[in-house]
Amino acid sequence: MTPLRAIALDLDGTLLDERMSILPENRQALQAARERGIEVVLVTGRHHRAAQAFHAELALDTPAVCCNGIYLQDYAQDRPLHGDPLAVEQRLALLALLRGAGHHVLAYLDQGFAFEDTEPVLQEVMDWAATLAPALQPRFDRVADLAPVLAQAPRVWKMAVSVQDPAEVAPLAARIGDELGLGTLQTGPLRLDVGRPGHDKSTGLARWLATRGLSAAQVVAFGDNHNDTAMLRAAGHGVAMAGAPQAVREAADEVCGSNEQPSIAAVLQRLQAEGRLG
Questions:
Q1: CA-based Rg of the chain, rounded to a whole angstrom?
Q2: Is 10 a catalytic residue?
Q3: Sorted alphabetically, which keywords does the UniProt record give (predicted)?
Q4: Domains identified in the chain, total number
Q5: What is the pLDDT of residues 125-165, one digit of tens each?
Q6: What DSSP element (H or E) covers 81?
C-alpha cells in the first residue's frame, strides 16, 4: 500500500467547525504530522483572502488550492499560481444569464469580492471576516452594478450563485454548461460555483503535487461537499465527514465523525498507528 505523504484539507464543514474555527486537537495533529515530514495543503472553494487566516494559523508553507482548483495562491510571494480566470466576455454573459433568472451573484476578484446585494451565506462570511485582524480581512465591495466591475477587473476567478430552491441547482448548472460552456460545481444545497471548465479540487491539487514530486495516491484527503468528490476519489485515501451528502460519502474510502469533533485528528492518528501515514 502506497505510503501517504500529504494531507489535503477542505475548510468549511471539514477542518472548520460551525464557528469557523479549527479545533485545537486537529491543529495539533496536523502540526505533529508536519513535524514528521508530511505536507499539509488547504484545498478550498474559498478565495485565497478568505482562506488566509487559517493558512496563517496552521503556519503552512504550502500554497493553497483556491476556488475549487482554478488557481493556487502562493502566500509567501502574495501571487497566484496556475490561474485560469474567466474571460471578460464569459463574465458578462454569465451575469446576464443569472440576472435573467433572478439569482444572487458573488464575483471573486483578485483581492476580494464584489456583489450587488447580500444574502445569508455571504452575510455570515462578512460577519466572520470582521472578527479578523485587519491584515487578514478579505475585501467586500457592494456595488450598484456588477457589469462594469466585471468588465474592468484584471481577474475574476469564479462567480458564485445562490438560488432559492435546491431543485434549481441542477437545471441551472446544465443551462450554464450548455449555453456558455462554463464549468460548475455545487458547494451547498443552494449554491453553485461557476468558472472556466476543466477545474476541480483534484486538478488543482494535482498541479501542486507535481511540483513536489508526489502523486494523488500519496494523499489523504478530507472533505464534506459535492465539490470535494473528485478530490476524495483521486486521493490514495479519501475521508468524508459524517455530515457529507450520501454521494460524497460514497466517493470516499471512509467516513469519519463530525467537524464539531476532532475527527480529523482521530483519522490521522489511526493512519499513523497503522504505518500508512509517514
A1: 18
A2: yes
A3: Hydrolase
A4: 2
A5: 999 999 999 999 999 999 999 999 999 999 999 999 999 99
A6: strand 79-81
**Shared-domain flag, residues 30 and 116:** no
Listed residue (143, 77, 86, 148) closest to 116, CA to CA = 143
List C-alpha distances in Å: 155 to 42, 85, 101, 105, 140: 22, 6, 24, 16, 16
What does the pLDDT look like over 171-208, one tens digit per residue? 999 999 999 999 999 999 999 999 999 999 999 999 99
Cell numbers representing residue 260 in the block: 464539531
Active-site residue identified among 10, 193, 200, 224: 10
Domain boundary among 195, 212, 231: 195
278 belongs to a structural domain: no
**What are the grid coordinates assigned to 275, written together?**
504505518
Helix (H) or strand (E) holding 40: strand 39-42
Q: Is the pTM of this model over 0.70?
A: yes
User: By C-alpha distance, which of 51, 35, 33, 53 is closest to 43?
Assistant: 51
Please give the Cα distance from 162 to 175 (Å, whole number): 15
- Report whether 218 contacts 2 (CB < 8 A): yes
Tell me if 163 sits within 8 A of 103, measured CB to CB: yes
